[in-house]
Each structure stands twice: as structure tokens, then as C-alpha cells.
Design goal:
alpha/beta, Spore Coat Polysaccharide Biosynthesis Protein SpsA, Chain A, 10-stranded mixed beta sheet, 9 helices, about 40% helix, about 20% strand
Length: about 300
């Protein structure tokens, strides 16, 4: 009988991940329970994963997106912590154990994130971010702000990406979970900012590490459709986030400027028959929908 970890459950959201999901799972210790939310609704995968005693495979009725998937998983998790990650992430040895040890040390921490490498390379902007919305201006250790090397000690930061984060569930519950108005993008910035406004800490743990193969959590065959969706949702979400936490007027004016820029780019690349024209149309479309307060409705059609 496997003695499962009583402190943490791993949560993975997936959408046509293919072999990446299996590779991700292989690097998670077998004594951790895993909840998979399959937004691609690939029923055939149930037979693949039912042999794993530590995995609960959930197929929702529709594509929930990231925040709604995490909110669904939250209700299923029974442990004090949940570790959220994605199929294109390889969790390094003892990463989860190191995060849990530090969670016991930093009692006020709501989120603890490992150091994130991207295909083996370290990029500070892909690891943690300064949001500019917090009253505390010294939240991120200034000695690491322009450093191209990973931190050499644990630091408190404004925000971490949703690539991999250990979350203290009781603190998350106190702010009402994830904002499910968002389908994808900026849900991680939003949750970090709301937790910090509540008085909790977001920590970057220097000796816990993962490797992220960015924008590869789906099958290569659907890359173009996912690229359009990515540009649409990123553009929708950035305006939604800025309006929610900053100046409504300033955010709207900035987006109107972007729309003008996108139109020029669409026309320019369109005349060159360059695929970038489609990318900028997705950004234009997402921004317009966000400006007029339409919901984050776009879903890639996968057959």
C-alpha cells in the first residue's frame, strides 16, 4: 500500500497534451496524489491513467480554462496544500519536498514557487515579476531584479508565474479562490496580488527547481489554433487585469492605442502574406472584446 503525502496534492490542467502529460507525471513522486483536469475531454485517456493509483482523472463537461479548473480541483483536494503545474513542466527531484519544508518555515506564505528554468535556461521574467500595484515598493529583493542568474536565497516577490506554485489552501479560500472571469493568462498575477493585499506572502524558493518547455503543453498538430487562442486571451486578460487592479481610464486608453497599433500591423503583414497578420488580428480581436466588456468567450475549435 502506498502511503500518500498528507500535506500536498498535485493539480495539473491539460488540453491535448499528448506525451507531455505522461512525462510530467513520471517526474512527480508516486506518494503524491494527482488530480488531472482534462479540458480537451479526451475520454480515451481514462484507460491510460486508471492504472496509476495516485491519479484522479477528471473530464469536465466543457473546456473550463485555467482558473475554473483550479477552483474545481480545490473542492476535490483534501490536503492543506495544492501544487499547481502544467504538462510542459518537469519537476526536479525533491522539489515538492523542499517547497513543503519551506512552507513550514514561512508560516505567512500563501504561495511558494520553485525556481523556473525554460528549456534549461534561466530567465528572470519567466520566473517572477514586479506588478507595480502593491504599496510595498521593496517587496522584491532589489539585488535580484536585474540578475540573469537565479536567486541564491529565498526571496519575497510580488508575483510568480502559474508554471508551478505550491498554494496554502486556507489562505486561498480566504480571498475567494481564483477569478473565474479569466479563462487563461494573468490568473496567476491576479491571485498573487489579491493574496498580498490580504497580507500574505509570495515566496520564491531558491533550492527547489522545475524545467519548463514553454508553450508546448499541447500537441504540435494544434499549435496554430492554440497560438491564436493564446494571443486572444492574453490581450483580453491584460486589459481585464489592469482595469480590475489599476486605473480603468488609463488602461482603456492604453488598449485603444494598442488597437491602433494592431490595425497597422495587420495591414502591413497582410500585404506581405505573413502569418504575423493573423497573430495581430487575434490580439486586436481579444482587446476589442475586453474593451466592450464581453466575457472571455473564445475557445479554440479542436476536432
Amino acid at each position: 500500500m502506498i502511503k500518500f503525502n498528507k500535506d500536498c496534492t498535485v493539480v495539473i490542467t491539460t488540453f491535448y497534451a499528448g506525451d507531455k502529460l505522461l512525462q510530467c507525471i513520471k517526474n512527480i513522486p508516486k506518494n503524491f496524489k494527482i488530480i488531472i483536469i482534462d479540458n480537451g475531454r479526451e475520454v480515451k485517456n481514462i484507460n491510460i491513467f486508471k492504472k496509476y493509483r495516485n491519479i484522479k482523472y477528471i473530464i469536465p463537461k466543457s473546456n473550463l480554462g485555467v482558473p475554473k479548473s483550479y477552483n474545481l480541483a480545490f473542492r476535490l483536494v483534501k490536503t492543506p496544500f495544492m501544487f499547481n503545474t502544467q504538462p510542459d513542466v518537469i519537476v526536479n527531484k525533491n522539489c515538492l519536498q523542499k517547497l513543503l519544508i519551506k512552507a513550514n518555515k514561512y508560516k505567512n506564505s500563501a504561495i511558494l514557487s520553485p525556481i523556473i528554468f525554460h528549456s534549461g535556461k534561466y530567465l528572470k521574467e519567466g520566473d517572477y515579476k514586479s506588478l507595480g500595484y502593491l504599496k510595498k515598493t521593496n517587496n522584491i529583493s532589489t539585488q535580484h531584479m536585474n540578475n540573469k542568474k537565479p536567486p541564491t536565497k529565498d526571496i519575497a516577490v510580488d508575483a510568480v508565474t502559474g508554471t508551478a506554485m505550491l498554494i496554502r489552501r486556507k489562505f486561498l479560500k480566504s480571498i475567494g479562490l481564483w477569478d473565474d472571469n479569466i479563462f487563461n493568462y494573468f490568473e496567476d498575477m491576479d491571485i498573487c496580488l489579491r493574496l498580498q493585499k490580504k497580507g500574505y506572502d509570495v515566496m520564491k524558493i531558491f533550492n527547489a527547481r522545475v524545467n519548463h518547455f514553454a508553450f508546448s503543453s499541447h500537441k504540435p498538430q494544434i499549435h496554430m489554433k492554440m497560438d491564436f487562442s493564446r494571443n486572444w486571451h492574453y490581450s483580453w486578460s491584460v486589459l481585464y487585469f489592469n482595469r480590475k487592479h489599476g486605473s480603468w481610464l488609463l488602461s482603456t486608453l492604453q488598449s485603444l492605442f494598442l488597437i491602433f497599433k494592431y490595425i497597422i500591423k495587420i495591414l502591413f503583414y497582410g500585404m506581405l502574406f505573413n502569418k504575423k497578420s493573423k497573430d495581430y488580428f487575434a490580439k486586436f480581436y481579444g482587446t476589442i472584446c475586453s474593451i466592450v466588456n464581453l466575457k472571455s468567450f473564445y475557445r479554440p475549435s479542436i476536432h
